[in-house]
Task: inverse folding
């Protein structure tokens, strides 16, 4: 089933991010920083990008990685090629 609303899509994005960063979903807010707050490294960021591409059927340029610092940034980066 496709995620239709912003909230539903954020739930999916949060699940992907938390799975890759190996943290609990309640540890991540929309604005908590992956690197500073959750010790993510650049390899994890690339894993997140690849998982999002697969989940949502989009292609994300790696040049967008600097914007993907928190859930809000990730949502914005994915929403552009997805047309949300």
Result:
């Amino acid at each position: 089933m496709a995620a239709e609303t912003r909230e539903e899509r954020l739930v999916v994005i949060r699940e992907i991010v938390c799975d890759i960063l190996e943290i609990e979903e309640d540890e991540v807010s929309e604005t908590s920083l992956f690197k500073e707050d959750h010790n993510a490294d650049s390899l994890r960021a690339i894993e997140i990008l690849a998982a999002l591409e697969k989940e949502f059927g989009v292609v994300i340029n790696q040049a967008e990685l600097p914007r993907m610092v928190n859930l809000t940034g990730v949502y914005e980066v994915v929403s552009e090629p997805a047309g949300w």
Remarks:
- The CA atoms of residues 49 and 60 lie 7 Å apart.
- The chain is about 55% helix and 0% strand.
- The mean pLDDT is 94.
- The two ends are 16 Å apart (CA to CA).
